Amino acid sequence: MAHRPRKRARSQNVRVCWQDSEEQRVLGFAGYKAGMTHVAFVDDSESPTKGQEIVSAATVIEVPPIMVYGIRCYANKNSAGDILSTDEKILKAIGLKKKETKPVDEAKVEDVRLLVYAMPSQTKIGKKHIERMEIACGGEDAKAKLEYCKTLLGKQLRIGDAFKNGEYVDAISVSRGKGWQGPVKRFGCKIQRRKATGKGRHVGTLGAFTPAYIMYTIPMPGQTGYHTRTELNKRILKISDKPEEINPSSGFPQYGFVNGDYLIVRGSIPGPVKRLIKLRLAVRSPKVSEIALSYVSN
Question: Between these two residues, 297 and 97, which has the higher pLDDT value?
Fold first, then answer.
């Protein structure tokens, strides 16, 4: 029920529900899925393999720098105005000219977000247009958040400014699209026996006589995949700016070579390669500790 409605996502630039943090830091970042590999590291969890070297599947995400072009202030859960960078080159990239903005009443500000844009042109995926988004910041109160955001205005942020090795993040992206599918593939319904109305891959019942209509909870054919999904507690195994350590000899399939900063997270992430992945500080994070990487191999 949490995955309703099962329809196509509005945009690959998905919306993110941000959490509050008293620590003064950037709470999110964005990158592009490059592919998967496997990583060997020392397990520091409370599992039976604690202290042993284990091998796990991992996802490689290329994270080019993001540019901070403005600050958005909120009051009463509505936008109270923006503070834009004075650098015309930064504004030109988003199609804005230098203009006078309405001054923001900082005394009424209740929350602050960074206005940033990702630069996929710094990767080799072939995408040229920037992708604008909001990223939350942490702080004790709105005033502290605003002062911190002002120090970042007009600067480039790298992945090391937001996260560090061993932290847990949530990955938000649009899953791989599978088109129109039947109820067996879409919901995992049981395949019927041969004498069940002469069909196999259909729903056994469409519901009770009363109410006299088909409920929305009944498994029916429809769009499968290309849904917005959030994967919780993905652990960052490694952050690096040395792509030669992770690139396969022939590049990642359907992606090519990682060109700059990247991070490795344990497990899989929704979406195909080249898909925009948004990362936020985990809202249900377990205890954080440093990861002891032994080696990374493809």
Answer: 97
Question: What is the rounded end-to-end Cα distance, in angstroms, of the chain?
Answer: 37
Q: Among 279, 297, 237, which residue's Cα sits nearest to residue 14? A: 279
Q: Name the DSSP class of 106.
A: G
Question: Is residue 167 domain-shared with residue 44, that is, in the same domain?
Answer: yes
Tell whether 72 and 197 lie within a shared domain: no
What is the domain count for the chain? 2
Question: Is residue 18 a part of any domain in this protein?
Answer: no
Pair (206, 80) in one structural domain: no
Considering the domain architecture, whether residues 163 and 212 belong to the same structural domain is answered as no
Report yes or no: 122 and 65 within 8 Å, Cβ to Cβ.
Answer: yes
pLDDT in tens, 207-259: 999 999 999 999 999 999 999 999 999 999 999 999 999 999 999 999 999 99
Domain of 231, in residue numbers: 28-175+225-297
Query: Bridge partners of 153?
Result: none
Question: Are 246 and 240 contacting, i.e. CB atoms less than 8 angstroms apart?
Answer: yes
**Element of type H or E holding 118:** strand 111-118
Task: Specify the 3-state DSSP secondary structure of 31.
Answer: strand
HSE of 109, CA atoms in CB hemisphere, 13 A: 21
Q: Is the pTM of this model over 0.85?
A: yes
Largest Cα separation within the chain, whole Å, is: 73
Check: CB of residue 260 under 8 Å from CB of residue 122: yes
